[in-house]
Every structure is written in C-alpha cells, then in structure tokens.
Amino acid sequence: MKLPTGNARIIIIVCAIIILGILFYYVMPGSVLQFGDQKPKGMTTVNTTPAVPLTIDASFEIQEANVSIIRYINSTPVSSEQLQMYPEFEKYMHGTNNDPKVWRQGWRNIADFEGNISRYDALVKEICKGKNIFECNRGTLIEYHNQSYIIIDEQYGTMPRNPNW
Fold first, then answer.
1. pLDDT tens digits along 43-70
2. Boundaries of every domain in the chain
3. Model-level pTM?
4. What pairs with residue 63 in β-bridges?
5. How many secondary structure helices (H) and strands (E) does the chain include?
6. CA distance 88 to 92
7. Are strands 75-77 and 141-144 parallel, antiparallel or unpaired?
8. Which residues neighbour 149 within 8 Å (Cβ) at sequence distance 6 or greater?
9. Among 44, 79, 145, 153, fewest CB within 10 Å belongs to which?
10. SS3 120
11. How far apart are the C-alpha atoms of 128 and 150, rounded to whole Å?
C-alpha cells in the first residue's frame, strides 16, 4: 500500500516530534517536556514552609483504672514509641504508681489538660492499627507500664463525635 506524498510528510513530522520529545524527556532535565516529579540524582527537597502551631481545641482527662475493681473493659497495650506522637500523655502516665490522689469506685484522676483533638485522633489510630472495633475503640483502657488508663476527651464548640471511630 502506497501512501500519498502529503500523508507521508505528516507521518514523518509526527515521528520526528515523538523522537524529539523522548530526547528532551531523558536528556534535558527541567525541559518543557519533562513530566512528573523527577529530580536529578543527589538533589533533595527541603520544606521551607513554617510549621503551623496546633490549635487547642479540646480538653483531656486521664484516669487510672484499678483493674481488680473495674472489669469487663477492653484494654490494649501501648508503647513509649506510640505515645511519642502525643508526649503529654506519656508525661502524665509515666510513673504514677505512688500518686496520692483519691481512688473513687476503681478510678483516680491523673491529669486534666488542654490539647489538640486531631493529634489525639492520630494517636488513637496508631494505637488501634490492626485491631478490630471489639479490641480497640473509644473507652478502651490503655495499658502502659503495667497500669491501665482511660483518656476522656471533650472537643470545644462542637457536637459529640461518633464514638465508633
């Protein structure tokens, strides 16, 4: 099959453009035809935007549970590495064995403080990763250093959130 002369020129021009495009793509980084987020080797990207301070939008209460009195509540172990996402929790939970506060019906208040609810949600997602709703949900006791705690949160200015995460 023989192509008319006009169509042959168009095919040759299209092929030449494709070859030039491939050449620009691989040979000339940063060219107009360079697609994607590719960087030359050895080049790193640095985030120069300043960190936005977290808003204080909730109050938190940490209570220690006496598991010999409080029964039938799920619990999940937490590591120091997980609590590094929200250091205030580790600060208040660490070493409270000899806290002289009063026990009331198996509970004693450890700390009340204000914080950021989205940071707390990220911590809970990390703690509950790989567990089902029956093993880990809002109201689950957190085991840290052989003690059990519950974290009660109240978000400011909003209606209560869905407790089933």
1. 666 666 666 677 888 999 999 999 889 8
2. 1-45, 58-155
3. 0.60
4. 109, 150
5. 4, 5
6. 6
7. parallel
8. 62, 63, 64, 65, 93, 110, 141, 142, 143
9. 44
10. helix
11. 14
